[in-house]
Design brief:
single chain; 7-stranded mixed β-sheet; 6-stranded mixed β-sheet; globular
Length: 332
């Protein structure tokens, strides 16, 4: 009850849940280097310090969980023969957080490990008891609240990364990319125009099976009046990120979200280190969080606060802040 005896107002302002959010830590025990296009400097060792600060702050604030949006270690670890040691180092930092950490995979995890190998590491969260995950798959979902579900995508299920070259998923990705990108260097977008710039080896796609699984989750959430947050490494909305970083089949994914916009609150992604955001024409907030590895700030993360009628994301340092209204109030 507030000073005016208004209990409803107090209930509206209560924080129901807190979620840490971070993207593209890309830790490696190497000196600072520029990205592959030589446009942005990356601070590989500092990224670990920024992750430690984030974990410390989330722990002090008693966050309920953390959403890790992919690329937690950098691809340079592979050539340094440090993939496993870098992952151990990052996991040791994350272990200090007392709650669950929900991971999705980015291209840099797949430069270091195969997708099959990742399934047996802590970067696969789908085997946690609170998660619902199709057998043998790497995408999953979990509930934060009876009125809020988080759906975690594998944006590289169809990919030229982390899969054997003779696998159907690799061949499908190769057909998609080479059919739209005639360049010898399949990670170079120069010369490609508009949305065609996304047809790069560093991006992946969602399979038809995963798309159907997503539809079923959103259909069920709509019927039960449950809010949904979707997270994946690759952005899907062209106005929320550089088009060279979009999901290969982003137009198909956008069509699904639009069809079920009654329940989808927001889509959270990383991958584009500059970050960006936009609200699509169906009212869904798309946020691309910047790369922590390139942060010039002393902080580089966000914390999301769930209220009865809205989601408030407060950025620290290089991360911006956002607010969006829930599709369904938590108390109704």
């Amino acid at each position: 009850m507030d000073c005016n005896g208004n209990t409803e107002l107090t209930k509206e302002k209560e924080v129901v849940c807190k979620m840490g959010i971070i993207a593209d830590v890309q830790y490696a025990d190497i000196e600072d280097r520029y990205n592959f296009r030589k446009t942005r400097l990356r601070f590989y060792r500092k990224a670990l310090t920024l992750l430690q600060r984030a974990v410390s702050d989330w722990t002090a604030e008693e966050a309920n969980c953390v959403l890790q949006l992919g690329d937690v270690i950098d691809g340079f670890n592979k050539e340094e023969k440090a993939s496993e040691s870098a992952l151990r180092t990052v996991l040791e930092v994350l272990k200090a957080f007392p709650g669950p950490i929900y991971h999705t995979w980015g291209n840099h995890e797949l430069y270091n490990f195969t997708q099959e190998e990742l399934m047996s590491t802590p970067l696969f969260s789908g085997n946690m008891p609170q998660c619902t995950c199709p057998k043998g798959k790497s995408y999953y979902s979990f509930s934060i609240h009876r009125k809020l579900k988080v759906v975690v995508l594998n944006c590289y299920e169809i990919s030229m990364l982390g899969l054997s070259e003779d696998s159907p998923a690799y061949k499908e990705a190769e057909t998609i990319i080479k059919g739209n990108n005639p360049k010898e260097n399949l990670n170079d977008p120069d010369g490609l125009r508009g949305m065609c710039r996304r047809f790069l080896k560093l991006n992946g796609a969602i399979s038809g099976t995963q798309m159907d699984w997503l539809k079923e989750h959103l259909r069920d959430a709509t019927n039960k009046r449950v809010n949904v947050i979707i997270m994946g490494h690759c952005p899907i909305f062209e106005h929320s990120a550089n088009n060279m970083d979009l999901l290969l089949n982003c137009t198909d994914a956008m069509e699904v979200l639009t069809d079920f916009s009654d329940c989808v609150v927001c889509y959270l992604a990383g991958h584009d280190h500059e970050g960006g955001s936009s609200v699509d024409f169906s009212g869904i907030l798309h946020i691309t969080f910047p790369g922590t590895v390139e942060s010039l700030e002393t902080d580089s993360y966000a914390t999301a606060y769930l209220y009865n009628d809205q989601l408030v994301i407060k950025g620290r340092g290089s991360y911006n802040s956002y607010k969006t209204t829930l599709r369904f109030p938590l108390q109704e």
